[in-house]
Design brief:
By secondary structure, the protein is an alpha+beta fold. The chain has 2 domains: 24-54 and 139-202, no CATH class; 59-126, no CATH class. 21% of the residues lie in helices and 12% in strands. The protein contains 4 helices and 5 strands. The protein has helices at residues 2-12, 60-67, 104-115, 190-200; strands at residues 51-53, 141-146, 149-154, 159-164, 181-183. Strand 2 and strand 3 form a beta hairpin. It is globular. The chain starts with a helix and ends with a helix.
Length: 202
């Protein structure tokens, strides 16, 4: 009985504070978050990506054109593809077939997946979605940035990803469970790169 009460208390304590204003977020005169403001900066001057992130859904008219009129037939409670980004269905949606940036060895693989409408992707087996697939679903993700690590907490499937930015190398023999682990190695600064991509989307 006591264990059951503790379990219920644990679950009831996981509420979201959707109406709690994020301190330090740039705001317009009416108090709303200014989504056109430059990315906030961390103490080291680099863009600070900390906060809640969520992809905007593709307009229904465009989604219907890309996927078909029966897109609503795929909806189930809590999972409505009319609220998805078009990139869930086709990450190359903005490319003409002849402009595909995929290497030849991946074109065949992607083509096979397209023929089955992604029926063999991990999420169809109740496994966590990959990157960038998870990022395109209409669920929030919380980013926590520290000087040497970016942690991404995805509300969908309660998965997380750790991106080390301290210069370490990738594991030589990564385990399958390390899917959500990455080490960013580049002369291009990761935070600036993501912030610039965000600015380009405006």
């Amino acid at each position: 009985m006591f264990a059951s009460a503790c379990l219920c208390a644990t679950y009831s304590a996981t509420g979201q504070w959707v109406n709690h204003p994020t301190p330090g977020a740039p705001r317009t005169k009416d108090g709303k978050v200014n989504l056109s403001a430059p990315a906030p900066r961390a103490a080291n001057g680099k863009p600070d990506l900390s906060g809640l992130w969520q992809v905007d859904p593709t307009p229904l008219e465009e989604m219907t054109r890309l996927v078909g009129d029966d897109i609503g037939a795929l909806a189930v409670p809590g999972d409505d593809p009319r609220q998805f980004s078009k990139y869930v269905f086709n990450i190359l949606a903005d490319f003409k077939p002849e402009e595909s940036p995929l290497r030849p060895e991946f074109r065949e693989f992607v083509g096979k997946r397209a023929q089955t409408a992604g029926a063999d992707i991990p999420t169809t087996r109740c496994l966590p979605g990959g990157i960038p697939f998870t990022s395109f679903l209409p669920f929030p993700a919380k980013f926590i940035q520290t000087p040497g690590l970016l942690v991404m907490l995805f509300e969908i499937d309660n998965t997380l990803r750790q991106v080390y930015t301290d210069g370490r190398k990738h594991p030589e023999d990564p385990q399958a469970t390390q899917f959500m682990l990455a080490a960013f190695q580049s002369k291009i600064d990761l935070m600036t790169q993501i912030a610039n991509a965000r600015d380009l989307e405006k």
